[in-house]
Design a protein that fits this description.
This is Pyrroline-5-carboxylate reductase. By secondary structure, the protein is of the alpha/beta class. The chain is 55% helix and 14% strand. The protein binds 1,4-dihydronicotinamide adenine dinucleotide and (2S)-3,4-dihydro-2H-pyrrole-2-carboxylic acid (A1CAB).
Length: 265
């Protein structure tokens, strides 16, 4: 069994790092392809057993092929690999790129899996959402699920949900980083040193997220637990509400979802 990753940018490298860390696929069974040879130098120093190529057709001989190129270049890569590929499993992580388009290039019977991962996969804390074409066999599904489960949480969704998934968990890390940066800036404004402020901000977000995931409590209940009558927190919550924090976040996910829909056209 051989795995290829085509496109070793931010997300391709995050997936590779997660696979290497968890040893879910041995590195000597992985071939990676990118047009940039500078990526090769960097990756070969880091992972000595990895096979690297600039030839997508060579990578497309693998059994499972992860396409981690941008939506804007995926058509040209599909053109290249479709000459080689016939019964392999194609895993596309491209935002907005629909099954219909992938089928147009690879055939109606092609085994295609759409996945929307996110960059925290790099540290084993990713969120990946998978959508399978009907022709993918149970054991193939299991194998691909095992890869993404090793990178964090993984779950299945219908294709119609994939744009919203992209807007929320695909793009979401960037929104959360903005929040962390803003928390840290506020700490600095109030006299904390930058290093301390950033650590406090990141651990606060991590701990709060774990409370949501590990307790059965609704976020509103968890918020109420922090919010003492006439205390500090309610003063801050009121300021966030006055500034339209919730509607700004809803608008961010809505715009990201709409952009994913656009990329699919
Ligand atoms: N960055 C993220 O957080 C996430 C990205 N994605 C999806 O992952 C894909 C890649 O995104 P990023 O890693 O952010 O982009 P990126 O620009 O960092 O990486 C793309 C890589 O593809 C390479 N490339 C370009 N043309 C190529 C070709 N013809 N053949 C082989 N390699 C080629 C580039 O050299 C680059 O290394 C996109 O489709 C995006 O929608 C999905 C989930 C999250
Ligand atoms: O910004 C993007 O288009 C990609 C897809 C989801 C996260 N990053």
């Amino acid at each position: 069994m051989k795995l290829a990753i085509i496109g070793l940018g931010n997300m391709g490298q995050a997936i590779l790092a997660g696979i290497a860390e968890k040893e879910v696929v041995p590195l000597d069974k992985i071939i990676v392809a990118d047009k940039r040879t500078t990526v090769q130098n960097k990756l070969q120093t880091k992972y000595s057993n990895l096979q690297f190529t600039t030839d997508n057709k060579k990578a497309a001989q693998a059994d499972y092929i992860i396409l981690a190129v941008k939506p804007q270049v995926i058509r040209s890569v599909l053109e290249e690999i479709r000459e080689v590929n016939n019964k392999q499993i194609i895993i596309s992580i491209a935002a907005g790129v629909k099954m219909k388009l992938l089928n147009r290039y690879l055939g109606e019977e092609a085994k295609i899996i759409r996945v929307m991962p996110n960059t925290p996969a790099l540290v084993g804390a990713g969120m990946s959402v998978l959508n399978f074409s009907a022709s993918v066999l149970a054991e193939e599904k299991d194998f691909v699920q095992s890869i993404f489960a090793a990178l964090g949480l993984s779950k299945e969704a219908s294709e119609e949900d994939m744009d919203a998934v992209t807007g929320l968990s695909g793009s979401g890390p960037a929104f959360v980083y903005l929040f962390i940066e803003a928390l840290a800036d506020a700490g600095v404004l109030k006299g904390l040193n930058r290093e301390t402020a950033l650590q406090l901000a990141a651990q606060t977000v991590k701990g709060s997220a774990e409370m949501v995931l590990k307790t059965d409590k609704h976020p509103a209940e968890l918020k109420d637990m922090v919010t003492s009558p006439a205390g500090t927190t309610i003063a801050g919550v009121a300021a966030l509400e006055a500034a339209g924090f919730r509607s700004a976040v809803i608008e961010a996910v809505t715009k990201a979802t709409e952009r994913s829909e656009e990329l699919g056209k």
